Amino acid sequence: APTIRRTDYQPLAWTVEAVDLYFTLDATATVVRNRMRCRRQGTGPLVLMAEGLERLSLTIDGAPAETVRETDTGLEIDLPDDADEAVVEVVTRCDPSANTELSGLYHSGGGLYTQCEAEGFRRITAYPDRPDVMARFTVTLEADKAAFPVLLSNGNLVDSGDLADGRHFAKWDDPFLKPSYLFALVAADLVVLERRETTRSGREVLLQVWVEDGNLDRAGHAMDSLVHSMRWDEATFGLELDLDRYMIVAVSDFNMGAMENKGLNLFNAKFVLAKPETATDVDYEHIESVVAHEYFHNWTGNRVTCRDWFQLTLKEGLTVFRDQQFSADMLAAAGGESARAVKRIEDVRVLRTAQFPEDAGPMAHPIRPDEYQAIDNFYTATVYEKGAEVIRMLHTLLGAEGFRNGMDLYFSYHDGQAVTCDDFVEAMSEANGVDLDQFMRWYSQRGTPRLRAEGRFDAAARQYTLTLTQVRPDGDAPLHIPVALGLIGPKGADLPLTLAGEAVGTVTTRLVELKDTTTTLVFEGIDAEPVPSLLRGFSAPVILELEEDDRRLAFRMAHDSDPFNRWDAAQRYMLRVILAMSADAAKGELPQVPEPFMSAFGALLHNEKLDPAYRAVALTLPAEAYLLEQMSPADPVALRRALIVLMRHLGERLADSWLGLDTRLAVAGDYRYHPADAGRRALRSLGLRYLCAAGVSQGVERALARATGESHMTDRFGALAALVNSPASAEAAIALADFERRFAKDALVMDKWFAIQAGAWRWIDSAQPALARIEALMGHPAFSLSNPNKIYALFGAYFRANPAEFHRADGAGYRFWADRIRDLNGRNPQVASRMARVLENWRRLTPALQSAAQAQIKALLADKALSADVREVLEKALG
Ligand code: HT7
Ligand code: ZN
């Protein structure tokens, strides 16, 4: 596939001002009549993209088109040189039931749905399918009424009625200009949950959540989340819902999480449906944030959109930041500031687990990439999560009010336009009167920058000197980095921070703006050597390099007043212990758990002043993917051995504490989604994890009772996970069978059942390897290769969440991976390429694993039928 470059951007010669679509819908043969009012804006032909369409007719201003050229991407039509306007009508046919890629118009569960971002609209009709073409859409849907009783599209319903032969129609008009990637339609047999709300300015709006029959009792949380999102965006950014009607539709087959089509959001059903018996606290949290994310796109993405796909982080980084802030505010409102800190910790955990490895591997790219072959490969953790961190830094530097002023200016300049990341940062800069030119470098740097810190205490001068040095993986130009920092005194209290030359201050956390490669800070009036607490709240997406011995880490675990850094100290200590234990395991020695670490861990566990939710995150070991990233070479089997020993030790030695806390923190009454309750549940489930890991009989008994009794999904699944990841294989088998019996007919819940088995750790060498189990599960009646959720649950969990079993010494895991990629490539290249990415960092593995992985990647690349999506990923992986 050709490489597309950011610097090659050119406006199109012809744009579309208004488009009128008429769909004659049918599962196997849908005909689309597309009438476009086109306007000249430069020299050259009218360019229409089209993919896999059968063209039935094409007219220009009512006459058959003559000068039409077929190109690799669609059509080019020469229009008279003196024409400024033309009405182009194209009629095409497509087959939704053959669309296994789930891009364009596709068939799922008896209904018809669309997914147009990034380039799916061209699979529906011939069109200048680029985000800088913003048009007014009117859409008529016509279909068999019995098969497709509900007909939805963007905007307002302006007409509907019955037609002959049992058919009916609905006409929709979207009053806002939009790019084609925001187009959507739904034709299906669905039921609706409705609510009417009044916006801040007094307009009445209709909110709808559409689901399959039988799921209405699971739609309430999505609706509540939508209302909360509306209120938050009004209060925080003064942004109101601009439409009379806002719809969310749940779809079972969906490649990603959800899609922000104007007024008609399509959602992967797993991010809509929840009731206590089927969804965990984590599911509830995800639904709230995904609903919010899509809703917030209505302004950051839809009203102001991207000029080209290189600008993707303009809408995604900003919208992730907005959804993170929303969730943090919601959690803090219900659960206090500690709940906000837990949210920040979870977000950084995702960044470190998913984005840091990406930024250190062959797919590394700036948040605004410079080139791509398949844009679908660039919906990445870098564009989304690192992009959100870049926006967060702006928020930190400008303050909430300055940031809000920048947002206001951005909308006042660019509402209704397709713009660039520069436009956004310029609005922030102008609104605040600050120069952000250096800050802009964050948009073009790749790789995670490192921040090296060194402290020196001078007792005689009562000074503490901190030297901070930026180490950048690409290039010399220093970045603009906000660093929040504090100094902790010997008794554990924060010290007031006074820089040389300043009047004595009282502030204990300061924000320092690094603009040079090296910055030296001299703090005065320091009587004893302090312990620095740097990058508080994770104020910048960098790797902090600071020499800290075990004693210091334990001290910060006990005293750091910044909850993020306190958690981070625990993570660093765990990392150090686990790496040492893994090194022992790799040498064939029995890994030992150091006693001082046990004391520091125990102190956190027993600290009743800390919220359960906080203790749950603080006592959770770093993710395996993150740990592997820190290992050199990455040896997944040695790491797993170390983790098993550590978990067993923590379970055994602290058994009484875990059991006591399990009793004390039980939540009485009916399930409610609330951070305080969720925190207690999380800590209890974590306790079961450790207890079962150690085979503590009371723990196993409790887990079995909870996994098989009358419980809600959070407790049930927490207990099931504890059993499955433990030596208690007999109890795990009973719990798995019970779960399957209860939920065999519930596709979303069965995804959990598949995933937990695919990701299961093997505690006893004689136990069945994960791969054998997965191969057997592929034949399960609830499994389907055409449903992305099932692929992610069974294969994704194996490849990503079970490194020790996937990276098997005999290479069987890699052979299985290659077979799956080959098969998925033909069905759904987007999903195939996401799965292909799991081996991109193969060069970090041990030499034996490297050669086994490389052989499979090479074999795959020899396949001529490989899609552009998968090819791009594998070619980059091979380098
Ligand atoms: N903006 C949406 C992206 C998306 C997507 C991209 C490629 C292929 C399929 C897709 N489904 C949704 C999701 C979001 O960020 O809100
Ligand atoms: Zn998004």
Automatic annotation (TrEMBL):
<dbReference type="InterPro" id="IPR037144">
    <property type="entry name" value="Peptidase_M1_pepN_C_sf"/>
</dbReference>
<dbReference type="InterPro" id="IPR014782">
    <property type="entry name" value="Peptidase_M1_dom"/>
</dbReference>
<dbReference type="GO" id="GO:0008237">
    <property type="term" value="F:metallopeptidase activity"/>
</dbReference>
<dbReference type="InterPro" id="IPR027268">
    <property type="entry name" value="Peptidase_M4/M1_CTD_sf"/>
</dbReference>
<keyword id="KW-0378">Hydrolase</keyword>
<feature type="domain" description="Peptidase M1 alanyl aminopeptidase Ig-like fold">
    <location>
        <begin position="447"/>
        <end position="545"/>
    </location>
</feature>
<dbReference type="InterPro" id="IPR001930">
    <property type="entry name" value="Peptidase_M1"/>
</dbReference>
<dbReference type="InterPro" id="IPR038438">
    <property type="entry name" value="PepN_Ig-like_sf"/>
</dbReference>
<protein>
    <recommendedName>
        <fullName>Aminopeptidase N</fullName>
        <ecNumber>3.4.11.2</ecNumber>
    </recommendedName>
</protein>
<dbReference type="InterPro" id="IPR012779">
    <property type="entry name" value="Peptidase_M1_pepN"/>
</dbReference>
<feature type="domain" description="Aminopeptidase N-like N-terminal">
    <location>
        <begin position="99"/>
        <end position="182"/>
    </location>
</feature>
<dbReference type="GO" id="GO:0008270">
    <property type="term" value="F:zinc ion binding"/>
</dbReference>
<keyword id="KW-0862">Zinc</keyword>
<dbReference type="Pfam" id="PF17900">
    <property type="entry name" value="Peptidase_M1_N"/>
</dbReference>
<feature type="domain" description="Peptidase M1 alanyl aminopeptidase C-terminal">
    <location>
        <begin position="551"/>
        <end position="878"/>
    </location>
</feature>
<dbReference type="InterPro" id="IPR024601">
    <property type="entry name" value="Peptidase_M1_pepN_C"/>
</dbReference>
<keyword id="KW-0645">Protease</keyword>
<dbReference type="InterPro" id="IPR045357">
    <property type="entry name" value="Aminopeptidase_N-like_N"/>
</dbReference>
<keyword id="KW-0031">Aminopeptidase</keyword>
<feature type="domain" description="Peptidase M1 membrane alanine aminopeptidase">
    <location>
        <begin position="222"/>
        <end position="442"/>
    </location>
</feature>
<dbReference type="Pfam" id="PF01433">
    <property type="entry name" value="Peptidase_M1"/>
</dbReference>
<keyword id="KW-0479">Metal-binding</keyword>
<comment type="similarity">
    <text>Belongs to the peptidase M1 family.</text>
</comment>
<dbReference type="InterPro" id="IPR035414">
    <property type="entry name" value="Peptidase_M1_pepN_Ig-like"/>
</dbReference>
<dbReference type="GO" id="GO:0006508">
    <property type="term" value="P:proteolysis"/>
</dbReference>
<dbReference type="InterPro" id="IPR042097">
    <property type="entry name" value="Aminopeptidase_N-like_N_sf"/>
</dbReference>
<dbReference type="GO" id="GO:0016285">
    <property type="term" value="F:alanyl aminopeptidase activity"/>
</dbReference>
<dbReference type="Pfam" id="PF11940">
    <property type="entry name" value="DUF3458"/>
</dbReference>
<dbReference type="Pfam" id="PF17432">
    <property type="entry name" value="DUF3458_C"/>
</dbReference>
<keyword id="KW-0482">Metalloprotease</keyword>
